[in-house]
Amino acid sequence: MEIEAVESREAAHFLPVVKRLPVAVVEGSGARLTDVAGKSYIDLTAGWGVTCIGHCHPALVEAISDQAGRLMQTTNIFYNFPQLDLIERLAAVTPPPLTRSFIVNSGTEAVEGALKLAHRATGRSNFVSTTGSFHGRTLGALRVIGQEKHREPFERIMPPSKVVPYDDLDAVRGAVTDDVAAVIVEPVQGEGGVNVPGDGYLAGLREICDAAGALLIFDEVQTGVGRTGRMLALEHENVVPDIVTLGKGLGGGFPVAAFLTTEEVAETVQLGDHGTTYGGSPLACAAANAVLRVVTEEKLIERSANLGAKLIEKLRGFSDDHPGLFSDVRGRGLLVGCEFNDPSRGADLNLRAVDEGVIVNVAAGRVIRFFPALNIPEDELFSAVDTVLALAAA
Ligand SMILES: Cc1ncc(COP(=O)(O)O)c(C=O)c1O
Q1: CB 239 within 8 A of CB 206
Q2: Is residue 168 exposed (0-12), middle (13-18) or buried (19+ Cβ within 10 Å)?
Q3: Are 237 and 199 in contact (CB under 8 A)?
Q4: 66 in catalytic set
Q5: pLDDT digits (tens, 9 = 90+) for 204-253
């Protein structure tokens, strides 16, 4: 089928809020996608940081198929065992104070839950967030999103919180007044262009929040589940926030997300403060359990750290050989960015890469973001990266 036929079919009925690449995908396996014409692509985006164990990992497919044939969904007035397993697992793989979790369906919902919790625990109603941040597209998340292009069109229905420059502790200190319930920060910014804060930033945030009686929320929807070479990116500084959000990689492709908190914060919630029809379904939790099992059994966190370090080394070497092309190469684990000196070079890079059989993303209009599956075969990663770099330098 020609892509033009797909485009015109969609154009008749799709709400046009998303810009597509001219590719209609029908299958995925590992780090590869196949389109309707049978062309194969290496996916350097893992479906936007989601398919952390690769597309259609057999263990995930089996867990979902098995659970689907048993019980997909119940009302949340019943206990269910996949959910019990998942909340125990989450408590075991995250820092000890984060013992309590609630399972939802998407990253933005996890952020909503986190903001509600912070309000409940402090009685305060303002928030501090950072420039370039991305926290989702529902209204509460839009309130704290740092990226103006997403927030500004809706400010009249959801007035923004205080947005301060990322990686600037003085700015946070100045903004955390006694009406602030929480500071919400990505430990490494993903959508904002793979921004890695300086050493001491996360610890500094903790100190500022403690002094001001505000909570600290780490949004790990993109950085969690091994993406940065640790289970959670907060482990790079061993700073424990009051609330953590997870999503994306948690379900490996199945929609599931979570927010986790401490006993102290959990004590402030009241029955009925939050709820969801689908969140924590047996099916979603079976998927997340399978992902966490595979991540551990296949040592994908270590792999993310090691392969990410090799990738950064390669990109830095390429940058040295092409002076003036990139202004920076940075990242943690398999969340790596190359920033163009001239952003116009990134403008249609994803389109040109698709022609060459590679799916790649340019974040914040100027940063090539590499965030493939954590188990991408090394030869596939580096051959796809070679393709992208050749296009970037052309
Ligand atoms: C850090 C962060 N938080 C929240 C979200 C929103 O997640 P979702 O698209 O699942 O609602 C994203 C999505 O990119 C994200 O990167």
Answers
A1: yes
A2: middle
A3: yes
A4: no
A5: 999 999 999 999 999 999 999 999 999 999 999 999 999 999 999 999 99
Which whole-number Å values give the CA distances from 35 to 1, 13, 128, in the listed order? 10, 22, 42
How far apart are the C-alpha atoms of 381 and 279, rounded to whole Å? 34
Candidate from 135, 151, 250 with most ligand 1 atoms within 8 A of CB, to mutate: 135
Active site residue 219: yes
Q: Indicate whether residue 224 lines ligand 1 (CB < 6 A).
A: no
Catalytic annotation, pick one of 43, 102, 127, 134: 134
pLDDT, tens digit, 9 for 90 and up, residues 335-348: 999 999 999 999 99
> Which of 35, 334, 318, 221 lies closest to 326 in space, CA to CA?
318
**Which position has the token pair 């040592």?**
299
Counting every residue written for the chain, the total comes to: 394
| 13 contacts: CB under 8 Å, gap ≥ 6 | none
Order of strands across the sheet that contains 326-332: 326-332, 335-340, 367-370, 361-363
**Two tokens at 49?**
């940081």
CA dist., res. 357 & res. 314, Å (int): 21
Q: pTM of the entire structure?
A: 0.98
Say if CB 261 and CB 120 are below 8 A apart. Answer: no
The half-sphere exposure of 163 on its side-chain side, counting CA atoms within 13 A, is 18
Whole-number Å distance, alpha carbon 257 to ligand 1 midpoint, is 10
Whose tokens are 């994306």? That residue is 248
Distance from residue 135's CA to the centre of ligand 1 (Å): 5
Beta bridge partners of 362: 368
Cα(199)–Cα(285) distance, integer angstroms: 35
